[in-house]
Amino acid sequence: MLKRAYSSPGAVSVALALITHQVFRRYETYSWFIHGCLLFGPPTLVATFVSDTADTTRSLLQGFFRALPIHLITLSISVILYRLSPLHPLAGYPGPLSRKVSMLVPAYLSLSGRKCQYSQALHKQYGDVVRTGPNELSIIDTAAMQHLWNLPRGPMNVGISLSDKLVPLMGIQDPAEHARRRRPWNRGMSQAAVKEYEHVFADRVHLLVRRLEEQPGKADLAKWIEYLTYDFMCDMAFGGGSELLRDGDKESVFAVMEHGLMVAGALMLVPWLGVYMGYIPGAAKALATLHQTGTRFVLERLERGSTTRDLFHYLNNEDLPDTPPPPRQHLVDDGILAVVAGSDTVSSTATSLIYCLITHPDAYADLKVEVDKYYHPGDDPCNPRHYQDMHYLNAVINETLRIFHPAAAGGQRRVPWDSEPVVAGPYVIPPGTIVMMPQYTIHRDARYFSYPDDFWPERWLIASGDLRLEDARMPPGKSKLARGEFVHNDAAFIPFGHGPIHCVGKALGVLEMRMLTCALVHKFHFQAPQGWDAGTYQEQIKEYVTVTRPPLPVVIKPRW
Predict the structure, then answer these.
(1) pLDDT one-digit tens code per residue, 415-434
(2) How many CB atoms are closer than 10 A to CB 64?
(3) In sequence order, what are the beta bridge partners of 130?
(4) Where do the TM regions start and end (predicted)?
(5) Which residues, in sequence order, are CB contacts of 96 under 8 Å at separation 6+?
(6) Residues of 383-413 as b/e, b for ≥16 C-beta within 10 angstroms?
(7) In the chain, where are the structural domains located?
(8) Is 518 labelled a binding residue?
(9) First to last CA, the chain
(10) Closest by CA position to 49, among listed 59, 36, 35
(11) How is domain 175-449+489-558 classified at the CATH fold level?
(12) CA separation for the pair 275, 518 (Å, rounded)
């Protein structure tokens, strides 16, 4: 009787493919073994029941290869039709057809480094909520966002580890496990710990100033700032290991980082592909090289032991003698995170800040006045005692973060599969839905900020009450705003994220920005070289995981 039931292997293959689709849809997994079982198990099952016992092996193979295309084609059609059908939980949200079907297209487009611009264009076309993937929404409505920050992290960082077994801190979706793994980071980025790092960064900034004084009038400031932040990252995280300010980039550190981040940016959109590539030698060479860099720093630090209270003093539980160290792979994952987040984000923001100053001479002049007020010739601008009172400095930093966010694609959250739908303002978000909140688009929305595309530090002083709107200088070419026309929504300014998985390095990053900016403005006057097209800087910025920026040629003139 069972044999008769399988007398139509095509129909059975179709039925099993439809069942497989439901398993895929409900139980998300990145295991290649489970994927293999679901893709090739049903055709094998069909072949087993229709095979001729007289020639078992040959009959099995023939049955398998007849059933396999039926299974795969039916599965693909079922997936596509379901994702496009009104039965899909996100069917009511608008978005481009290709995004509803698969994330492969946006992953490919991300290699151009323009995914922030793509996201902005989609929101201009479709509105505040856009379906940007089969199970993904992008939201720029601040009223809805307030209900989403406390959700668990989404899956985008799973694939960048190139493994389904070793999930890095940034890829952990379970809130309790994430909180446990983050505790050493919280200790290593506490107020007391950041105080320990102050003099380390100050020493590096002093070295940068000396190196810039040696330059023959013109330099690529972006390169020197990269050297500074990378050297400091190694000092702060690993107790040393890099001397780019002294020796230059002989090992092409930043080329390796950029290529690795380019691959990572694509794999964040299709995490399962990252897991697969991890099993294929050389398939993700650029990202694997970035992993090796982080691994090398960690192993050297562990072999050397603790000589200072660096970040790994806390990550390795050296501050808790009665607590065993974490698994080595956890430390390696943390090392990779430190390499990227500890240097690339600050160098990107600092370079863009100087770009904004040299292209906005009035703002540059005002910042010089404030720096000179607190730090006279001969004073050390790396002493942070005045930073909190320097309102224009902080306004310039905030405005740079608003326009040139170093990770502008935005944070990702996910409604748990086993939860109720989340009501976020007027929107109902079903279980299993991934939610993106793109900083680039939000920070440049005219509903949240007046003159959103303009560099206008005064907006922060007006919003805080330190400057009257009537007395404020407007952006170049813009007309005066009446009191009721000024728009500033603090809820739309999210440079460090919100909720339990916000950026743990916020305090250190702000300190670095303040100290570096003060030192450069205090010691030097920068201007664009003659004939340089300032517009090319913004055009050449690429966003992968973090922003990679083009060279910033400047003419350097010491002030004292």
Answers:
(1) 999 999 999 999 999 999 99
(2) 19
(3) 138
(4) 6-24, 31-51, 63-82
(5) 122
(6) eeebbeebebbbbbbbbbbbbbbbbbbbbbb
(7) 2-84, 99-171, 175-449+489-558
(8) no
(9) 96
(10) 59
(11) Cytochrome p450 (1.10.630)
(12) 44
Structure-block tokens of residue 297: 């720093």
Q: Which two tokens stand for residue 349?
A: 């923001």
pLDDT band at 54 (very low <50, low <70, confident <90, very high): low
C-alpha 414: how far from chain center: 16
User: Measured between alpha carbons, how far is residue 320 from residues 109, 184, 189, 425, 463 in Å?
Assistant: 46, 10, 16, 44, 44
| pTM for this model (two decimals) | 0.93
CA distance 178 to 160: 17
Query: What's phi and psi for 334, nearest 5 deg?
Result: -65, -35
Quick count: other Cβ atoms within 10 Å of Cβ 466?
Answer: 12
Quote the distance between the C-alpha of residue 302 and its chain's center. Answer: 27
| 441 CB-near residues (< 8 Å, 6+ apart) | 116, 119, 120, 123, 138, 140, 410
- Write down how long the chain is: 560
User: Looking at the predicted structure, is the pLDDT value of residue 450 above 60?
Assistant: yes
Q: Which two tokens stand for residue 487?
A: 């728009």
CB 519 within 8 A of CB 531: no
pLDDT of residue 31: 82
- pLDDT, tens digit, 9 for 90 and up, residues 505-559: 999 999 999 999 999 999 999 999 999 999 889 989 988 888 788 899 999 999 9
Angle of helix 344-358 relative to helix 361-374, nearest 10 degrees, comes to 110
If you ran DSSP here, which 8-state letter would residue 139 be given?
Answer: E
Q: For residue 451, give every residue at least 6 positions away whose Cβ sits within 8 Å of its Cβ, in sequence order, or none.
A: 459, 474, 475, 478
Decide if 319 contacts 187 (C-beta within 8 A).
yes
